[in-house]
Amino acid sequence: LAIDSQNDKYYTNLALIFLEEVKKINKRSLNITYNEYFLLKVKIVNNITQGLLNIEQAIKLDSNKSDYYNLMGILFYYQRNFEKAIEAQNKAILLNPDKAIYYSNLASTLDELGNIEEALKLYQKAISLNSNNLEITRTYALFLLKMRSSKIAFQEYEKGRIILNQEISKSYNKPLWNNENLSNKKLFIYHEQGLGDVIQNIR
Length: 203
Description:
Distance between the termini: 53 Å
Radius of gyration: 20 Å
Number of strands: 0
């Protein structure tokens, strides 16, 4: 930035770094003491503030990139400034109405505000645009579970699990097991989800 302060991508990259730090801190906050929580809360606020300052500067330099508004919406979501998040997410959709994740992000925000019917429509729109996106599929499944639409939710969750397995298979360069005979073969086992699920499944 000291060399080229007019490059919007530099500001966007910084905003992404601050967002990732917020996500890391949120994960850490699940296993901390009461006193540590407040220290991490301050870090979260600072990172969101810095992220917003940078993405706002990026938008000043180029206001036609939908991903910038989507990123701004995510940061406002973590700030729990849902009205601002909706405004940014709607702008992202206006600039690029074919990107599924934008609808899913907006649905998550509306869900936080209790606008369940509109959130459901947006999740369905996101799925119709991209049914192979793991993040969208899982978020939609959890939303349906909360609505007690368990049958459909488990179907969507299973879709997400299949997508995840395919991605893991590629990353480890191992084929998925299709229940074939394992005589004289080795079975490579990996965890699909969190440590809690792993422990539960091996009991």
